[in-house]
Amino acid sequence: MAEVKSDIEIARAADKKPILEIGAKLGIPPEDLLPYGHDKAKIGADFISRQKVKKDGRLILVTAINPTPAGEGKTTTTVGLGDGLNRIGKTAIVCIREASLGPCFGVKGGAAGGGYAQVVPMEDINLHFTGDFHAITSAHNLLSALIDNHIYWGNEQNIDVRRIAWRRVMDMNDRALRHIVGSLGGVANGYPRETGFDITVASEVMAILCLATDLKDLETRLGNIIIAYRRDKTPVFARDIKADGAMTVLLKDAMQPNLVQTLENNPAFVHGGPFANIAHGCNSVVATTTALKLAEYVVTEAGFGADLGAEKFFDIKCRKAGLKPDVAVVVATARAMKMNGGVKKEDLGQENVDAVRKGCANLGRHVQNVKKFGVPVVVAINHFTLDTEAEIEAIKTFVATLGAEAILCRHWAEGSAGIEDLARKVVQLAENGRSQFSPLYPDDMSLFHKIETIAKDIYHAGEVIADKSVRDQLHAWEAQGYRHLPICMAKTQYSFSTDPNLRGAPTGHTVPIREVRLSAGAGFIVVITGEIMTMPGLPRAPSSEKIFLNEAGYIEGLF
User: Which of 376, 139, 424 is nearest to 254 (CA)?
Assistant: First the structure.
């Protein structure tokens, strides 16, 4: 059996085209690209604004079942499908998120695909890339510094230091910074208070950048951030301390989408990266809407399983940006079906058709949920070497009972040649024009009713429980004019429930609401359930232990 190359070895051997050549394929003149070296570039705002008169292409969402330690390959399938569509003669652009350094050095790895379905340069995309995350971190922390500085110099806005809502961020997993006390050391350092750090991808600034339509909209949204409350509980906004202008300046270049390429030299936009189980988990609206003007098909992904990622893509991103997806692809694997069916990770190499059938309940729930949004669904079975024909057939047979089709995809090993069947099916569904997309709930529904609708219709929960203080807070926000905002659920990605160990398709469980946060700039209400944390920690043996420079100066260990 031939030796299987690692993702980074495959990426390093890629025959990349100059980025100006990739841009030319999309009709982007050299003067409208800001190159970062020879293989990545930002797309100019003037070029983007000139595309608004063009007709939109078709939007394809790639989502997945709940993630398991067996691996599903959602980003790999997204990239592979983009290549597959180009292979069958369609012009297609891939739109994915940027990678966070936290998961990269933690346990999850990068976000550039895998095998022969990757975007490159893989090392840059998974590390500092074009500096977008650093800009977001700086803009966020500038606001943090301005808040404490405003209080130090007299507190003109009468901020109640007990009710400051804005923390600090860094793009790294560091549990030691979750809860800290700042401004210690005497009068010159300000007023001591409790605060803490979140990871950059959980920042409202990240969400704002990914939902803003242009720099003017960005500045307005940044100004709308609620940073604190006064003693009378009226909100203090970022614009009240004149922070919005300088924050926008820091984010000027970060607002421009990043152009890179797949291993097969097809264009890919990699831009933005809000956490999927904390924030809305989608790449930027600017990247997606620009791509729709430049290609017949745009393939984008949502975060984690469809219960989180697809729901937020539909109810937040599509609602806010006026997007209408044509087809949804739900990624599954035989290995993951076996894990959902009760098989341990170490036993996944053995055929177990009964476990596959049992685990298909999780896949079925996701397929049925996506259909509730009126979008046609196809299942992509991401192939692994040890999958058996009987296991694959069991998935196909099950999916057929749902009125959908499951298609075996070998893009990880074969690139676009291994995903042609899925590409043709996506084109067929899209061109049939059967999508009747609509969000799950209307804008004018009460906030708590929106939460219940997601919990009961998508998670199949029996009830939602919340303290009176949470319900009162939701009522107060409604009275302040925020009733129309969508809900952004912060929940474990591993289960339909709030218990990460409860696999399959549980019903009747309880969803406890621990906390609610108003992201007035981003334009949604964050609802925190279970044990979700906005600053993750590193595992006992983090991925960083295996990342190093080899003797030739190449990076090893990224995946």
Answer: 139
* Alpha helices in 51-152, H assignment, sequence order: 74-87, 101-105, 122-126, 132-152
**What per-residue string of b and e applies to 51-88 under the rule 16 or more CB within 10 Å gives b?**
beeeeebbbbbbbbbbbbebebbbbbbbbbbbbbbbbe
Quick one: which of 452, 80, 396 has its CA closest to 263?
A: 80
Active site residues: 74, 76, 97, 108, 276, 304, 384, 412
Residue 354 maps to a domain: yes
Residue 189 lies in a domain: yes
Q: How far apart are CA 141 and CA 157, in angstroms?
A: 19
Closest CA to 264 of 90, 78, 14, 42: 14
Q: Specify whether 400 is located in the same domain as 355.
A: yes
248-301: per-residue pLDDT in tens? 999 999 999 999 999 999 999 999 999 888 889 999 999 999 999 999 999 999
The parent domain of residue 312 ranges over 7-25+57-130+258-431
pTM reported for the whole predicted model: 0.94
Residues 287-305 have pLDDT tens digits of 999 999 999 999 999 988 9
